[in-house]
Amino acid sequence: MTALIEMRDIVKTFNIGTPAEITILHGCDVTVEEGEFVSVIGASGSGKSTLMNIIGLLDRPTSGTYSLAGTDVLGISDDQLARFRSQKIGFVFQNFNLIGRIDALRNVEMPMMYAGVPARERQERARELLELVGMGDRTGHLPNELSGGQKQRVAIARSLANSPDLLLADEPTGALDSATGRLVMDLFHELHRDHGMTIMFITHNPELAEETGRIITMRDGLIA
Question: Where is the ABC transporter domain (predicted)?
Answer without folding.
Answer: 5-224
